[in-house]
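Bumping with the actual sequence this time:
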Amino acid sequence: MAYRLCVIPGDGVGQEVIPCALQVLQRVLPNLEVVEAEAGWACFQRTGNPLPQHTMEAVAECGAALFGAVSSPTRRVEGYRSPIVQLRQRFGLYANLRPTRGLPGSDPRAAHVDLVIVRENTQDLYAGRERMQGEEAIAERVITRAASERIARVAFTLANQRPRRSVTIVHKANILPITDGLFRDAVREVGASYPQVAISEMLVDTAAMMLAARPDQFDVIVTTNLFGDILSDIASVWGGGMGMAPSLNLGEDVAIAEPVHGSAPDIAGKGIANPCGAILSAALLLRHHWQLSALAERIEQATYAAVEGGARTPDLGGQATTQAVVEAILERL
């Protein structure tokens, strides 16, 4: 079949790592059709729109996208809203998959880390319901049963395909009994249909501590939007840090692969950005959206072999350039 991909580099190091991921994708999928598009802060500054309509149309037509990073202002700017959040909501990309595979290093615990955080991707505090009421700033947290059940099915289906078959529900229902209580109960109800998968639950602060201290105990974590965002950043430490961290925004008909790291303006243009997060994100697209697991496995094996063989950018303690890492991966492919 024909595969089409919308490529959106975005800002900062996104402009450097996304072409690298595309090189790797085209090595294993030479007939891939690529459609280039734009989004982000630089796009907003130039056009007044951070996510042009033609970009939305290109994503819809391709059904798959590779997204880099965007530089977002820390204060409200009239007319600007995060493009990736808009894309998640526009295309119903309700599941955010964030795996962490341990990268051997000084800590022996890393060798036993193999976990996936399944993050609900459309609601919670990311719903965008903020307002001022006099001198009081209010943000509304949105949790629905339908979205909770939907993300639960993704988590349990994924866990059922993994050797350990274990799901940990992470919440804060002791403080947020209505919203997180609904989330926890809905996930548990879905889990009852997967008797072969073990279910446990953990408060988010405890989960954060355990991810930092004993990450090897986790298999699949399912949680709400904000908690998943934070916990996946903690987990990424065991996989080599943010530069190695991949993610996939997954919906019914559209998927967007996106490295977890930001635009990293401090190193943009220096040729030392780690391309592995973007490359591993492309592998997630192959596995979970296009159902090309064998090709995804080839990319993952080549990436980790290159890194473990010494192709390490400065964030991993090495001196390799972005291009040198890509060449090492392509050589192994």
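The tokens above came from a reply further down the thread. Residues 145-160 form the longest helix (16 residues).
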